[in-house]
Amino acid sequence: MIYRNNTIKNFWMIFFGVVALIAIATAVTVGIIAADTVSNMRMSVIDDANTYKIGQENGYRQSLYLACDSMKNLDANLGKAAISNDTAHQTEMLVKTVIHANQVNQCLSNLPFEASDKLSNCQKFVNQTQDYATYLLGKLSRGEKLTASERAALINLDAVATNLYNFLQDYAESDSGMFITNGNGQNNVGNLSSSFDDVDNNAFDYEKLIYDGPFSDSVEQKTLKPSQILPRESLDNIANELFNNAEFNSVINNEGKLYVYDVENGRVYLSEDGRVVEYEAYAERGENEEEVQVKCDKCIQIAQEFCQKLGYDVKGVWVSKTADTVTYVNCATVIDDVIVYPELIKVAVNSQGEVVGFEARAYLLNHTDRDVTFGDTTEDAAKQTLDKSLKVTNVAKALIQKGDKQYLCYEFQCEQGDRQYYVYVDSVTGNEVELFKVIANTEGHTVL
Fold it and tell me: How far is CA 249 from the centre of its chain?
């Protein structure tokens, strides 16, 4: 035990020396990635022909969207750290909290703010959150546990982060979210500072000193390995059987060789053994198309039937609705009531009940014969490991993957006030394996 503690201390001495560098590197990386995201965000039309101003405006907008993303991640990790009972998970979430707090500060520093007391409060909150998370990491490195008051402080910080994320997101999506020019080409510098001043004072109250379902984006990228190599003629026949009037387009290498076919209003990607890897529709929403008309249960049925048509035996396990009238259904293999999360398939259903998107890469990478025999830990014993502040609303069985290991777990859907979490407890060891917080602005529902 003495050797283990010394090793941990040495590790943390090194860790705290590089965490700032990690934060900066992460912020730079996120900034590069977000360049593509920015083009998809709704922006007011800039009539000013001055390219210098337009360039400045785009830079400010990018920093604003990065601040939104970083605040969302800060929100999520604070909430998860607050309710976790596993030291390793607490450490992981607090490290991410430090990194995302640093990113928020960097993004805000790139924006042209005028003097604002509320802005100062926001920056103070981010700095104190970063410092507090660093302090808690020090405790954990010494083998100490978080106290009830420290957990309560994290919950309060989480509430503030949620308020600030909602404010930043609403501002970024509004027509007023311009810094140099708006639709009329008028000077608009300082508008965000003024909007900050309208934030409720209670938004910053905290004691001294968290669009998809679980595992939907956690699959490690691998190369598709077909069970057999079919000739082009056979692939052409398969594409025409599944999608009428399919025309061969090209061959691409994307984590494995894929054959691309153009179909009516869309495109299909087949693997070398004839499995449908992806399908995307090109049809756009009509001007008179109403908001989501198809009910959740119907979307699940449509998604499952589409998967079965393509030869996939899966069931809907999670649904997320979005404002663009598309309902996303995550389907997965279910064996003896055990959800096999590594074998996920994503299906997008529009408001007319049509499948407009399909992606089965995770299923094809991970599908195999499995033993889903649970360990000796009972459901009641697993439930006892949960934080006492959590109210369990649903229990399921699940096979999950974390890193290169798979675990047969109890999936506890929990509530803490108006917050929703998913906690996964290993049926063999009885330890917490994974934890997710459901982001407030994503309308998600489990269906199993």
Answer: 33
Give Rg (Cα) of the chain: 24
CA–CA separation, 217 and 219 (whole Å):
6
* Three-class DSSP category at 389: coil
Cα gap 123→102, rounded to integer Å: 10
Dihedral sign from CA coordinates of 240, 244, 247, 250: negative
pLDDT in tens, 128-176: 788 888 878 888 888 888 888 788 888 888 988 888 888 888 777 765 5
Measured CA to CA, the distance from residue 183 to residue 55 in angstroms comes to: 16
Q: Determine the 3-state secondary structure of 207 from DSSP.
A: coil
Q: Is the full-model pTM beyond 0.70?
A: no
Q: Which of 334, 342, 337, 336 is nearest to 360 (CA)?
A: 342
Nearest to 74 by CA among 193, 190, 162: 162
**What dihedral angle (degrees, nearest 10) is formed by the CA atoms of 423, 427, 432, 438?**
-10
What is the C-alpha separation between 238 and 270, in angstroms, rounded? 9
Q: In 3-state terms, what secondary structure has residue 22?
A: helix
Which string of DSSP letters, residue by residue, matches 296-361?
HHHHHHHHHHHHHHTT---EEEEEEE-TTS-EEEEEEEEETTEEEEEEEEEEEE-TTS-EEEEE-H
Number of helices and strands in the chain (H, E):
10, 13
Tokens of 283: 């049809």
Biggest CA pair distance of the chain: 70
